[in-house]
Input
Amino acid sequence: MSDLYARHRNVLPDWLALYYEEPLEITHGEGRYVWGADGTRYLDFFGGILTTMTAHALPEVTKAVSEQAARIIHSSTLYLNRPMVELAERVAQLSGIPDARVFFTTSGTEANDTALLLATAYRRTNTVLAMRNSYHGRSFSTVGITGNKGWSPTSLSPLQTLYVHGGVRTRGPYAHLDDDAFTAACVDDLKDLLGHTRPPAALIAEPVQGVGGFTSPPDGLYAAFREVLRERGILWIADEVQTGWGRTGDHFWGWQAHARSGPPDIVTFAKGIGNGMSVGGVIARAEIMNCLDSNSISTFGGTQITMAAALANLTYLLEHDLQGNARRVGGLLIERLRSAAAQDPGVREVRGRGLMIGVELVRPGTDEADPDRAAAVLEAAREGGLLIGKGGGHATSALRVAPPLTLTVAEAEEGAAILESALRSTR
Output
């Protein structure tokens, strides 16, 4: 055990998860690579849990942070803040939500917490709809709506949560149906559920479930849900903490795969927009955002240094068409991984879109999750010089691949070859 690991165990919680049998200390990074304390270089296909979205040590972001830090780092929302206003204007314009207002937080958890506060205050009910296999954060309220037992340490909650089918296309009671029939069955289930409960405040849903293993419904399912919800005045919250800013390649926001019935009432975001800086936020129609009847502030949400980083990062992302790069390079990567998986009876599915790819592992000859092999592949990939993540529903058996959006074709090939080798060595 390393000295740092021993010190970590002495002062930090036992439930604070660490990857790898020999935990890794990352000391620095550049582009799509990071270095461990022993000098080993790794190709980073997880980006701090999808947070280093653009690149490590992106010069435009580090320059913006340095220049802002030399002026003022923080003043709180009690004072006018030019970088916060400028970023809010850009985010509101990009959101697709009419008459949008933006509130900045420090994390996706806090963003979802705020969205739940807004929805329940606006609708005057604490009943919430959420998706099975979902994850929305680690605060008391967001744990209470998370539909993944591996990340929900308590059943206590300030909310009454009802879970809906549809977030996982290839498992569950409707998995055998084609896409249209699957969507129709999920809509019927939603209608039936709504007939047995008091009117909910909102449905909160990830367009692609992150911690759940990068699972998603057929395109258009949430649009069909929205038609049912709108008839009853129920809000739609799109949790874009992992899917926003072009990561899925096909769309700038994940909800746009379900846009037939219009944009969500509320969108939450975080992770990639700050490229590693602590930035989250909520976008909502003005009437919803302004429904609170008491004062509020954010001490650290919207602080000048994080806003400067996010502005520089967003500008770089748009000017260099990183959404297009995610679509092009991600498409090549997913096909390369599917080709490798075709030779492996323990790979149930390679799924995803853009640079958000899941590789689900099962015990060969069964449909049972294989979390032990997922852990072994994680170790073998690290040994080969590649960092990836893992997740999943009933058991953690999905490998999560989510590189920075500047990934090159050569780096995609390099990472795919390492992952293929890791899969082969753990059969």
User: Anything to note?
Assistant: The CA atoms of residues 97 and 263 lie 6 Å apart. The mean pLDDT is 96.
